Amino acid sequence: RRERQRFVDKNGRCNVQHGNLGGESSRYLSDLFTTLVDLKWRWNLLIFLLTYTVAWLVMASMWWGIAYLRGDLHQAHGDAYSPCVANVYNFPSAFLFFIETEATIGYGHRYITERCPEGIVLFLFQSLLGSVVDAFLIGCMFIKMSQPKKRAETLMFSRAAVISQRDDKLCLMFRVGNLRNSHMVSAQIRCKLIKSRQTPEGEFLPLDQCELDVGFGTGADQLFLVSPLTICHEINSESPFFCLSQRSLRSEQFEIVVILEGIVETTGMTCQARTSYTEDEVLWGHRFLPVMSLEDGFFRVDYSQFHATFEVPTPPYSVKE
């Protein structure tokens, strides 16, 4: 195998990094919610903890500041003196009062008195700010946990693609499978051929994308993915592999990107799984081993043979030849 840079890894990760954004990096802040969702889990948890910690300390300091300015910290809280917040004598007690208010615990030992208008205003501000922070951060964590990226890990692609004859036609084929019993609703498959080329005007396109027909006209691209399926691309005069032969395959350099999309049945969210095949992972004159068998009234799928292929007689010539 010739190791080279891939556009899309086998696990579906795109090897593209954005650099030299300049002033365009401010666009990430304009869509802060999506930026936080896209961050890695360790950064999400760090931001989550820091935001709540800083907000708690700032609000507790404001309650302590009101008590300090009114002189409540050095007065006895009895019937003769009405403080702003009863039983707040220092910063820890102010912090506990804030937590009781924010979490609506209400132990009853600390409370706002009616002779403290600034405390009432701060209480309203705390309630509004707490609702906004909770909605933003908890919503961000919920969206991140419910993302269907992990569902894509239970969608399988064969490690290699094959070229052989089917129905007297030369075809490029690969296999897809679903490891879960829950179905992918409205599953659809798409293929892109990524290959460098030069236009007649002399322009060089390093990553030119070309669509591979996997049954758009016949509806074969709409999958009923309850068992492993073999996806077929017919190599004809309209295919970019029209001039591809067994010999020329050794000197070609291309990448086939496969995109499988569908709706997760249990959550209703759209899921996308990706993989790619380089020219080294296309086997000429091979066919996939069967994986389906009938046993006692049900069909059994043997995933140990999912990636297995065997050689079949296949002409080494291109369709054009």
Automatic annotation (TrEMBL):
It is a multi-pass membrane protein. One of its GO terms (cellular component) is plasma membrane. Keywords: Ion channel, Ion transport, Membrane, Potassium, Potassium transport, Transmembrane, Transmembrane helix, Transport, Voltage-gated channel. One of its GO terms (biological process) is potassium ion import across plasma membrane. InterPro entries: Ig_E-set (IPR014756), IRK_C (IPR041647), K_chnl_inward-rec_Kir (IPR016449), K_chnl_inward-rec_Kir3.1 (IPR003274), K_chnl_inward-rec_Kir_cyto (IPR013518), Kir_TM (IPR040445). It is found in: Membrane. SUPFAM superfamilies: E set domains (SSF81296), Voltage-gated potassium channels (SSF81324). Residues 8-148 form the Potassium channel inwardly rectifying transmembrane domain. GO terms for molecular function: G-protein activated inward rectifier potassium channel activity. Residues 155-320 form the Inward rectifier potassium channel C-terminal domain. Belongs to the inward rectifier-type potassium channel (TC 1.A.2.1) family. KCNJ3 subfamily. This is G protein-activated inward rectifier potassium channel 1. It comes from Oreocharis arfaki. The gene is Kcnj3_1.
